Every structure is written in C-alpha cells, then in structure tokens.
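Please fill in the sequence for the structure shown.

STRUCTURE ENCODING:
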C-alpha cells in the first residue's frame, strides 16, 4: 500500500485519539467533582458529566456543514483547536457551569470528528484496504481511552487539584494533532465535488501513481451525477442506508459502552473493589480494548464487517448477562472485572471496529458527510442520554437491572446483523449504490 496513504490516514485518525481521551478522562474526576461542587446525582450526571456528550450531539448534527462547505482538512484543523480550548478551559474552571461549558466545546470536536475523519480516510483509501484504514480511527479512540486511564492513574496522587492535571494534559496531544493536520492534502473526492479537477487529479496521482487517474475521476463524476442536487439522505432511494446507519449507531450505545466507560471506576467500586483497585481495573479495560481493536482492524478486510458484528453480538449477550447476574447474586472480587473485560473485547472486535467504517461506506460521495452526520447524531444523542441516567439508575434500581437491559438490547442487535446488515467488504465507494440497491 502507498506509504503516503497510510501516513495521511494515521494523521487524520488521530482525531480519534482525542475523542477517546476526552471521553474517558472525565471518569477520573467523577466523584471528586461531585463532592467538590456538592452536586446532586441529577445535576452531576446530566450537566457536569454529560455536557461534553451534548456538545458531541450538536457537533454530530451540524458537523456535516463545515465538512461539506470548508472541506475535510479544514474541518479537522478546527476540531484540533476545539479540543485544545476545551482541555485548557476545563482544567482552569472553578465552578460547574464554566466546567460544563468547556467540556461542551470538547464535545463539539468529538461530534465533528466522527464525521470528518472517517469520511476523509474512506475517500483516500483503496477499496481493498478501506476497512483497515478507516478503522485506524477506532484504534486511536481506544488508544486514547487507554492513555486516559493510565494518565488518570498516574496523576491521581498529585494532590487536591489532581483532576485539573487529568483534564489539562490533553492540551499536549491536541496541539500536536492540529499541527500535523496541516501536512495532509484535501480529499480528492471532495475537491471533485467542488469542481477542483486539477488539484484532485494531482492528489489522486499521489494516491494511485500507477492508475489511470482520468478513468478514476470519470467514475467518481459519474457517481456524483447520479445524486440529484435536490436529493438528501432523506430521499426515498436512500431509505435503506439510512435505516442501516440508524440501527448501527443506536445498537452501539444500547450496548452500554459509553455508560460503562464514563463510570468504570464507580462500577468497579459498586462491585466491591477499592478505589485504587478500581482505577487499575480501568487500565485493564483500556488494554483489553486496545488488543481486541487491533484484532478487529486486522480482520475487518478479511472476514468482513458482518462476521465481526456477529462475533461481537454473541460476546455482548454472554458478557452482559454475566455482569447482570454478578450484581444480582452478589458475586464479588475479580469476577465483575473479568466479565467486563469480555464485554469490552466483544465491543472492540465488533461494533468498535465496524461502526465508523460501515457508516462511512454506505452513502454516495456527495451525501457521505450528511449520512455520517445522521449516524453520528443518533449515536451521540443516545450516548448523552444513557450515561446521564447512570447515577440515578444505580441509586433507584441497581446495576443488575441496568446491565440486564443492555443484554436484551444486544439480542436485537444480533437479529439486525443476521437478517438486515449487508456486507460492504471490498466494494468500491462508487459501486456501493448497486450493492445496497438504493433505487426503488
């Protein structure tokens, strides 16, 4: 594979590192902030903890606008700036509302990154390697999660302001990422959709130096012409990919993954582990996540998206059922962490590896950012709602019922995979319309 494509994909996928780090870093400050600002469970869950997620929802809903108007590259630069501002502001905040505001800004960056980064990588990647390259974004998400857990553990003994260091350290990777994005070129497919034929041809020549660039451009333009100016992702002919994006994104969150990542230390403490052991177990979650994401990245273009989702669905059902049983029957010690390790492994090899790849593939070039925005919006609306309810759910019903609910939802995901989800492995983006049968 062209080394330039790999390098550009790695740089763009670093937005995922910031996404993962930002999502999980708050878990280390969870109880400290609630005690510091004397917040109720409702206020702490829905404002302090979840405000970044509501920012993510807005970023996902409107992220297609700069991605389409300004281009993939400029949007990725803006995302880096948002993460930098958020990290600084959150670390320096002295009240919950200011803190929530800066966390909201970081959320905007996360939401927009789920549109711009996968879209960019899918548009520069060869069909046979597209799954692997786009899933680098997911790999960086889990790498960011692991580094956030490690960082929280290392910084947890830095005094009463440890939470400030935990949140502020993100400034470093955010600045590095922002500078690196200036190196990558714009997506040639975006350039063609904006009538910049010459520059698109130059970049395509770098991507595929031995290919007939004019033929590739002709295929892309022909595909773009099939999308009428008046058409949107809500047009009848795109109903099937819209349903696929909705279900893929919804089931991702109905697994309970974000609820767990946000409250991992608290869940482990509920299972009878001490605070220090809970933080160490969280690091174990990060390591398992990283290992099985690597396996998913390796297999996604070999086994395909559908088989990985099938494997992950079975793992979800078994692991979540065991976690629920552990809380109902009072199984203590390391059983709960072991079951949750299995849950994370199932997520990493299935939904984690597939979601951003799959959604970035199933819409035509001119509607890709809008389709990505739709899927991301569904994902992040649920990602905002579910974690914000966790503190209340814990106190009112208990962890056993919560994990039982997630297990039942994964049975429905298994049915979706078996009877509705198509395979997109190895299909050229311009041929996806025939593969998914968009037309009536």
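FILLED IN BY: designer on duty
SEQUENCE:
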């Amino acid at each position: 594979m062209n080394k330039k494509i790999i390098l550009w994909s790695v740089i763009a996928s670093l937005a995922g590192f910031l996404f993962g780090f930002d999502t999980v870093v708050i878990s280390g400050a969870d109880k400290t902030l609630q005690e510091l600002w004397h917040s109720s469970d409702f206020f702490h869950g829905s404002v302090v903890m979840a405000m970044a997620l509501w920012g993510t929802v807005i970023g996902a809903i409107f992220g297609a606008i700069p991605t389409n108007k300004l281009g993939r590259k400029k949007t990725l630069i803006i995302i880096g700036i948002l993460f930098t501002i958020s990290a600084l502001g959150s670390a320096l905040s002295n009240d919950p509302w200011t803190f929530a505001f800066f966390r909201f800004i970081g959320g905007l960056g996360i939401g927009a990154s789920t549109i711009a980064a996968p879209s960019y990588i899918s548009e520069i990647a060869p069909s046979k390697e597209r799954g692997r390259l786009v899933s680098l974004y997911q790999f960086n998400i889990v790498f960011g999660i692991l580094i956030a857990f490690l960082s929280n553990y290392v910084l947890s003994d830095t005094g009463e302001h440890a939470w400030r260091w935990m949140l502020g350290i993100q400034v470093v990777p955010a600045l590095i990422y922002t500078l690196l994005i200036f190196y990558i070129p714009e997506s040639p497919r975006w350039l063609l959709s904006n009538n910049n034929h010459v520059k698109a041809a130059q970049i395509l020549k770098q991507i595929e130096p031995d290919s007939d660039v004019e033929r590739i451009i002709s295929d892309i333009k022909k595909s773009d012409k099939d999308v009428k100016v008046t058409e949107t992702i809500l047009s009848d002919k795109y109903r099937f990919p819209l349903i696929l994006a909705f279900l893929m994104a919804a089931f991702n969150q109905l697994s309970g993954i974000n609820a767990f990542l946000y409250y991992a230390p608290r869940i482990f403490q509920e299972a009878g582990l001490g605070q220090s052991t809970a933080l160490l177990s969280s690091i174990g979650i990060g390591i398992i996540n990283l290992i099985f994401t690597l396996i998913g990245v390796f297999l996604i273009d070999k086994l395909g998206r559908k088989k990985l989702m099938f494997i992950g669905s079975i793992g979800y059902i078994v692991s979540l059922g065991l976690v629920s049983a552990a809380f109902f029957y009072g199984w203590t010690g390391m059983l709960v962490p072991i079951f949750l390790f299995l849950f994370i492994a199932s997520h990493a090899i299935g939904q984690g590896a597939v979601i951003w790849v799959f959604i970035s593939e199933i819409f035509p070039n001119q509607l890709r950012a809008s389709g990505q925005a739709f899927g991301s919006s569904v994902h992040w609306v649920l990602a905002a709602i579910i974690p914000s309810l966790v503190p209340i759910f814990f106190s009112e019903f208990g962890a056993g019922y919560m994990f039982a609910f997630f297990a039942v939802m994964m049975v429905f995901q298994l049915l979706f995979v078996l009877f509705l989800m198509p395979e997109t492995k190895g299909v050229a983006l311009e041929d996806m319309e025939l593969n998914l049968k968009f037309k009536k």
